[in-house]
Specification:
- The chain is an alpha+beta fold.
- The chain has two domains: 313 residues, 2-methylcitrate dehydratase PrpD (Orthogonal Bundle), CATH 1.10.4100.10; 123 residues, 2-methylcitrate dehydratase PrpD (60s Ribosomal Protein L30, Chain: A).
- It is 54% helix and 7% strand.
- The protein is built from 23 helices and eight strands.
- The strands form three sheets. It has a four-stranded mixed β-sheet, with helices on one face. The chain has a two-stranded antiparallel sheet with strand order 1-2. A two-stranded antiparallel ribbon has the order 3-4.
- Helix 3 packs antiparallel against helix 4, helix 4 packs antiparallel against helix 11 and helix 8 packs parallel to helix 11.
- The longest helix has 21 residues.
- The chain is globular.
- It starts with a helix and ends in a 6-residue tail after the last helix.
Length: 457
């Protein structure tokens, strides 16, 4: 079988009750995290523009637009909702490749689940399996795809395609076709995503293309099933590696450990997940050395994959904040860690943080390179201050990582902090959390959709 056929069979036929309990729990947490992030993103201009375009197109009223009201065809609603979540830079990441798979998986699963009156168990399975598809396929071309300039949306499209396929009830052949069509549909450049709101445009495109691929497959459309491993196919074009070798990597251990358990991380603060550990390590290092922010002379950052201190320094907006390791390091020292407040205009332009940004430097560290395999978007930070005082701390995994352990209490705190940004009252937030905790037991996920729209508030 081709890789598309093998994956298609697995993703179409996996039974929800056979998925590991921890994977299903993480799936429900990803849904909660995505809704919370979207609540912050609905007022951002990029979301507003794409929502307006979708509303102008109109169509069958199948699925809800979160927090703003109105109903659109499922694919259109999923696209708009995914853009809202991604725009706030507060969703999830696969730590192997920094692909935000939970946003398209959740947006698609909830939109189609609402339209088809699916139960919560089916929705959670769609999210878990969509995450698995994105993780497996993207990791098979990591780090090659980034070196070639492509954005993680080229992996996220498979989360959308599989999540859609699950809710549409695709059989193994149809799921294989959906994967193949998604592979030949997607694009996206890192240089645009890292410097502009093209990042969330990519998220919307991945969501839309994934749903369209699944719908086309459901209708009987046939594509090229050797598109992954074939000569000039997805793996060699995006990853620059031998297609068969990459396909073997994507097959390995299928049905064993799940990506949503081993490699997923939920953001417990805003911005690029690859820098969260920098803020945590910086805060710990300053505390260990007993160094107050005004005493800092150097904040030295070391991590295996960082050759230079990239990204903007004296930033002025959310986009530049999300991609500035210097900001994360300075914020960690200034405020003892990262919080949701660090995405606000007040914190982004905080003079205390900007003074410390000038003291941040990347300094190669042989001891870090020697144990590079332990760092999963982690970092070692050394903070130096007056009287030769120094503090040093290492964080191998950011807080919120599945492999480190995720607590519902942290996810709840995130929801309580962010869902009100979407207009939910305190009572509506608690009702939403009650359904999210018991997501698998919901008979119809339309109940959850109703809770995050104005008509429920």
């Amino acid at each position: 079988m081709t890789l598309a056929e093998e994956l298609g069979a697995f993703f179409a036929e996996a039974r929800p009750e056979e998925l590991p309990a921890v994977a299903r729990e993480h799936g429900a947490m990803v849904v909660a995290s995505t809704l919370a992030s979207a609540a912050c993103g609905i007022a951002i201009d990029s979301t507003r523009v794409l929502r307006s375009l979708a509303e102008q197109r109109g169509g069958k009223a199948e699925s809800s637009l979160w927090f703003t009201g109105g109903r659109l065809p499922a694919a259109a609603a999923a696209q708009v909702n995914a853009v809202a979540s991604d725009a706030a830079a507060s969703d999830d990441s696969d730590l192997r490749n920094i692909v935000h798979a939970g946003t398209p998986a959740t947006a698609v699963a909830l939109a189609l689940g609402e339209a088809r009156h699916a139960g919560g168990a089916a929705l959670v399975a769609a999210v878990v399996l969509g995450y698995e598809a994105a993780g497996r396929i993207a990791s098979a071309i990591t780090p090659g795809f980034r070196r070639r300039g492509f954005h993680g949306s080229i992996g996220a499209v498979f989360a959308a395609a599989v999540a859609a396929g699950r809710l549409l009830g695709l059989d193994r052949r149809q799921m294989a076709e959906a994967l193949g069509l998604a592979a030949t549909s997607i694009g996206g450049l890192t240089m645009a995503a890292d410097t502009s709101t093209a990042r969330e445009y990519h998220a919307g495109a991945a969501t839309w293309q994934g749903v369209q691929a699944a719908l086309a497959a459901e209708g009987g459309f046939h594509g090229e099933l050797s598109v992954f491993e074939g000569r000039g196919g997805f793996f060699s074009s995006f990853g620059g590696d031998d297609g068969e070798r990459a396909a073997a990597a994507a097959r390995e251990g299928l049905g064993g450990a799940y990506d949503i358990v081993t490699d997923m991380a939920i953001k417990l603060g805003p911005g690029a997940h690859s820098f969260h550990a920098i803020a945590e390590a910086a805060a710990l290092a300053a505390a260990k050395g007993g160094i107050a922010p005004e005493e800092v002379s150097v904040i030295a950052v070391a991590r295996p994959d960082m050759a230079v201190l990239s990204g903007p320094l004296h930033l002025t907006d959310l986009i530049s904040m999300a991609h500035s390791p210097a900001y994360f390091a300075a914020a960690g020292v200034a405020d003892g860690g990262l919080s949701w407040a660090h995405a606000t205009p007040e914190k982004i332009t905080d003079e205390r943080i900007h003074r410390l940004i000038d003291r941040v430097a990347f300094l190669p560290d042989p001891s870090v390179e020697a144990e590079a395999d332990r760092y999963r978007q982690g970092a070692t930070v050394t903070v130096s201050g007056a009287a030769r005082r120094e503090g040093r701390a290492t964080v191998y995994l950011p807080n919120g990582a599945g492999a480190r352990g995720i607590r519902w209490a942290d996810v709840d705190e995130k929801c309580r902090a962010l869902l009100p940004e979407g207009g939910l009252t305190g009572a509506a937030v608690e009702a939403c959390l009650e359904d999210l905790h018991g997501l698998e037991s919901l008979a119809d996920v339309a109940v959850l959709s109703a809770l995050v729209t104005p008509r429920a508030g």
